[in-house]
Structure formats: C-alpha cells, structure tokens
Amino acid sequence: MEKDKQKATVKPETKLLSPKDATSCEATARMLEKARRDGVEIAIDRAAAMKPCPIGAESACCKHCAMGPCRLNARDPYSKVGVCGATIDTIQARNFARMVAAGAAAHTDHGMAMLDLFREVVNGRIPDYTIKDPIKLREVAESIGIAVNDRSVEEIARDLYKELERTYTQVEGEIPFARRVPEKTLETWRRLGIVPRGAMREIMELMHRTHIGVDQHYENITKQSSRTALSDGWGGSMVSTEISDILYGTPSPVLAEVNMGVLKENQVNIIIHGHEPNLFESMLESVNAPTLIEAAKQAGAEGINLVGMCCSGSEMMSRHGIPHAGNFSSTEAVIVTGAVDAMGVDIQCIKQGLAKVAQCYGTHLFTTNPRCHIEGAQHIEFDEHHPKVCTDEIVIRAISRFKNRNLPVEIPRIVNPGVHGFSYEYINYMLGGTFRGSYTPLNDNIINGRIRGVAGVVGCTNPRVKQDWVHVELVKELIKNDVLVLQTGCSQIALAKAGLCTPEAACLAGPGLQEVCEAVGMPPVLGMGSCVDNSRILIAAAEMVRVGGLGDSIADLPAAGAAPEWMSEKAISIGHYFVASGIYTVFGVTFPVVEQTKFHKLLFGGLEAQGLGKWGYTPDPYKMAKMMIAHIDKKRKALGIDKARERILLDMADRREIAAL
Ligand code: NFS
Fold first, then answer.
1. Strands of 378-379's sheet, edge to edge?
2. Domain membership of residue 395 as a residue range
3. 328 CA to middle of ligand 1, Å?
4. Ligand 1, atom 2, residue with closest C-alpha
5. How far apart are CA 41 and CA 50, in angstroms?
6. 353 and 310 in one domain?
7. Strand, helix or coil at 274?
8. Residue of 460, 468, 573, 587 with the most ligand 1 atoms within 8 Å of its CB, for mutation
9. Taking the CA atoms of the chain, what radius of gyration do you get in angstroms?
10. 235 vs 174: CA distance, rounded Å
C-alpha cells in the first residue's frame, strides 16, 4: 500500500486550493482534506497541478493529420492557417464536430445497449428482466405510429423493437422519434437538411467529413454536427430513456437521500457508478438476496447498503429512491471515507484515478462492461443473460472487504433529503390530474406570468470550478425570478445537496412560482433523472408547443438551457441538440472557440437566424441567469405575453384556480 500511496501522492510543488474554494460540497471538502492528510491525490488536486493548454482550450489547434499538429494564434486568428491551409473556422468547426460525434456516440451506444437488452427480453432470452411498464410501452409505440389496439404486449414490443432499431441503422429517411417533434421545428430541420437518418450514419459521416481534406466549410460541418446531435437527443438518448422506463418502470416522485452521509459505518457499503441501469437493477436484487444478507451478518455487518453515484445513481434514485452519494467531482472523495467496500462501474464519467484511490483505501473497484476496463481495477463482466454472476460476486467481495476493514472509517454525517423522479408523464399527471392529465396548466401559468419561463439546468461538475457552486447560484437566481427549473444528472445532485429539491424550497422562489409550487406541492426544481433523461425535457418542450399558446416551434418557447459546470464531450452533444432543437443554451467553465471568429458567430447567433437556437457562454452564474432570463423575456415579448407578467395580481378566483390544479 505504501508504494501505491506514493504513486497517488500530491506533488509538494502543487499550489493547492483551500477545500472551501475547491468545492461547496461540505462532505467533499472534508474528504479532500483527509485525502491530503493521507497523502492521496484526487482530481481536484490534479486539476490544480495541470494547467490547461491555452491553445487547446480555445480550439485553435488541429491534430487531425501528421503534417501538424498545427497551432494557430488565438489572439490574431486569421493571421495563420494550418499546413493544409485549414482556417481557424474549419479547425474549430472540425474540433467541435468531433466532440459532438464522440458525445453522440456515447449516448447512442448506451441507448443501443438498452435496445439490445429489450430485444433479448422480447424474444424471451433473458428471464431476469420483464416489461414492467406496459402502459409506457403502449404510449411510446403509439407516439411513433405503431398500432396498439387489441394487441398483446409481446406483439407491440416486437414492433417497437423493429421500429426503434431504425434510430441507429437507418440509411435514409427520418428517425422514428422525429414524429414527436413539433411540425414547425421539423419543417426548419427539413429546410436545413438536418433531420437525422440513423445515428450510425450521422456519426460516421461526421467523422468522415472532419478528416483532413474533406469538409472545409465551417457552416457545412456545423450542419452535420446539428444532424448528429439531433440523432442523440431525439434518437439514442430518447431510446435509452424510453426503454429504461418500459423495462424498469416510469419514475414518479419519490423521497430520496443524497450526500456522503448515506454511507453506513456498520453496513457493507456498495456503490454503483456509471450510466446504464442494467447493472444497478441487478445489484438491487443481489443486495436483497436473503443468503447474501445473511453472509453480511455473519461477517459482522448490520446489512448491505446499496448507494448510487453520477448518472445511473440519479436514474435509480428517480426510479426507486435509492440513496445517492454524490456527483462526478465526489467519486474519488467518497472512497477516501474508507467506508466503501466495493464500487462497481460500467461506462462513462468513470475517472481512471479511481483505481489508485481505491487501492489506497483497500476498496474493491470492479469494472463490469466490455467497453470499459481500467488498469488496476478488477474486471467481472456483466452479462444480462446471467446478471447475478457478476452482481453476486461483487457483493461477496464487498462482504469480505468489510470483514477485513483495517483502516479507520470517517463518513461525513451529511444527508440531504429531497423529492426526485419527475418524469414527463408525472408532470402531466401532477399538473392536470388523473383524468385530465395535461400540460395546459403549465402553459396557462406561463401565459399569465406566474411562471416566467422554464429552464433546463443540467450536466457535469468540473474540478476547474468550485464544485456545485455555479449550479446552485444559477438555479437560485432562476427560481427567484419565477423560472421553473428542470434538472438532470450531476446538476440535480448539486441542487439536492443544497436542499432545493424539496417542496419547502418553494420559499426561495419568486411569488408566482412559489404560488404554483405551493398549490401543487412540488419543489421549484424538478429532478428528472440522468443525462440521457434530458430527452424528457425535449418531450416536455414538444408537449408545451402542442398544447398551444406558446408559439408553433420549440424556438418560440420562453425557455433556456444551461450546463454551468460542464466537462464532457457528451455535454457538448447535449448542448448542441438543445440548440438545434431551438433552445438558447449557455455553458460555463470554458468554451472551445476563439471569440469573434466566423464559427463563433455562427454558434452564438447565426444558427438562431436560421430558425434554431443559439449558444451562450459565461462562467459567472449571475450573468448566466441574467442572459437566460433576458432570453425568456425576449420570447415572452415575441409571444405577446410580456404584459401579462407585468400585472400579475392574484385575486381569490386566481388562488382557487391554482389550488384546483
Ligand atoms: Ni452528464 Fe457529465 Fe457524467 Fe452524468 Fe455527471 S459528469 S455530461 S451528469 S455523470 S453524464
């Protein structure tokens, strides 16, 4: 262990941030201090030791061929071109496109894995899973034109599988969920030639076009970036969400605890961290197996405690109320507690650094997916046909680690309860009731000005900025200004830790939003699940257009999006599918573009002029809130509902109307 510790040791010359400046998560701050005491390095300290490359940060370099890498001058971007003659705009558009391609590939591959599982279940080859939500199955099938009347679940499921496979493999035509897109938005996409055919084709073409010597017009490259990103949002991600709901149940509000205090000193603690729900669902069964519970007791534990992290954690929290230990910037810190007996990971957002930290604390780190191995971690492959082989083994190894715990355990006793699991369907029901489920009351409250607009605040945390702080400050500003906030992923966990996912947090909202939240009994911040569940936000936006009164296309809605602490290529793909769907989307931290170039102007304005949305950027949460609110107000004005907001006076009739929602 000494040797491993040395490998993970903080370099003495590194200028370290004070824990309070590195994170606003108290538990992570305490574990950062402990890690330093223990001589263990985590991402927050690695970030301090690693200065980002300034040329790369602005996307002013190209390494697509061996004539380079070519570095252009970000201060004088048109003074130079690459060896092949590529301009700053081509270089930036290609770099951006490859981020979109990688991010879209991640989500669509995840969605395809869900679809593979669905096929095996439908064909009766996997007895461990069933269709838990036949109502959702019928709704999804109906939404894309599959006949459902008088047909069995199996028949509908078989047809749905075949139809959804086109999301990936289709070579011409439009992806199935294009049918859910509001007509005017779809018309714009058709006019621009960006309706996705199939995700495989779009990603392949984007990779081809960004090769040296192919597409060398930044506008044309960006067109294919939009098409590819849309094949993620309305394709791979949406398939993933819908199949997960069909197989495991559509979320509805559930009380769940978040933060490191969900670990239990006297229990065997197992964390599942990653993105696909399959491993987690099977682990849930394993930890409830009487024989394994008995084995844990024999080892001196009071029980087995299953906890989530990152996106599959958010998904399981939303669906089943499983406790959640923290977001991306806390995944190493949680191991520093010494209380984690095993961590099982599958795919995406899994830091390689976990392996060393786990070694230092004797935590078993298991990779389980054929796509993701980590040097230094143990690999037990998860096969959906025999899921327990993997999950039972992880539990057994966790029990043995519990029995042999030989380091002190220090768990920050911080737990934040909140309500999560606001699926698109539940919002429908919550606002409209069982018999008249509808988004009409939401639209009405936007039109009458009680709710100023809707914001999707989503995405990662990034050790380049103070963890959670940008998310929390931004969301506080938004709700104070009567903007209803929809959330997913690591952002949702940041807000849950700040206590904003409770109905009581309505007191922090402006008077209009507060009134609506209190009448309905909902928090001002609605957690919808994992990052692929951003597709729920798209469906909600499409429904707001369909219900009427807020314009004809998604671009007309008084809505905005943000990923204030983003770090991954997936976030860029998500941001770009929101933009291409018509939504103003603001990113924090940094943005891979040289300002005032033609490419920058296209992303930050030109796309909007074409009828899509646009990008925005600022690392400052208060400025970000102002930018989003100004956009929402601009849309309200264009819809002619800005006056309604100015005279928002509630009389008794109004109050009764809200109470009846
Ligand atoms: Ni999404 Fe970022 Fe990762 Fe989830 Fe968290 S870091 S892009 S929020 S866990 S995918």
1. 304-309, 268-273, 342-345, 364-367, 378-379
2. 260-403
3. 7
4. 460
5. 13
6. yes
7. coil
8. 460
9. 24
10. 10
Q: How many angstroms does the Cα of residue 409 sit away from the middle of ligand 1?
A: 28
Percentage of the chain beyond pLDDT 90 is 90
Residue 538 covered by a domain: yes
What pLDDT is stored for residue 14 in this prediction? Answer: 60
Indicate if 351 and 211 belong to the same structural domain: no
Question: Does residue 494 sit in the same domain as residue 370?
Answer: no
**Residue 563 bridge partners (DSSP):** 587
Q: What is the reported pLDDT for 136? A: 96
In a domain, 32, yes or no: no
Residues 570 and 489 in one domain: yes
DSSP summary character for residue 74: T
647: tokens are: 């005279």
Percent of the chain with pLDDT over 70: 95
Rounded to 5°, angle at Cα 572 from 583 and 355:
140
Domain boundary among 248, 282, 308: 248
C-beta of 571 in contact with ligand 1 (< 6 A)? yes
Mean pLDDT of the chain, nearest integer? 93
Q: Is the CB of 587 under 6 A from ligand 1?
A: no
- Report which secondary-structure segment, H or E, holds 650: none
State whether the beta carbon of 313 lies less than 6 angstroms from ligand 1.
no
Q: Is 489 in the pocket of ligand 1 (CB under 6 A)?
A: yes
**Would 325 be classed as within a structural domain?**
yes
Please report, for the domain that includes residue 210, its CATH number.
1.20.1270.30
- Domain identity same for 348 and 279: yes
Going by pLDDT thresholds of 50, 70 and 90, the confidence category of residue 1 is: very low
Can you say how many angstroms the Cα of residue 511 is from the centroid of all Cα atoms in its chain? Answer: 29
Ligand 1 pocket test: pick from 348, 531, 566 the residue with the most ligand atoms within 8 Å of its Cβ: 531
- The predicted model scores a pTM of 0.94
We report the CATH number of the domain holding residue 559 as 3.40.50.2030
Assess whether 536 and 570 both reside in one domain: yes
Q: Is the CB of 103 under 6 A from ligand 1?
A: no
Task: Note whether 461 and 606 are same-domain residues.
Answer: yes
- Please tell me the predicted confidence (pLDDT) of residue 188: 98
In the predicted model, what is the mean pLDDT of residues 607-626?
Answer: 98
Say how many Å lie between the CA of residue 588 and the centre of ligand 1: 15
pLDDT tops 60 at residue 323: yes
- Residue 255 included in any domain: no
Please write the tens of the pLDDT for every residue from 141-154: 999 999 999 999 99
Boundary of a domain, candidates 373, 403, 433: 403
Instruction: Examine the domain organization and report whether 207 and 285 are in the same domain.
Output: no
Number of domains in the chain: 3
Decide if 275 contacts 286 (C-beta within 8 A): no
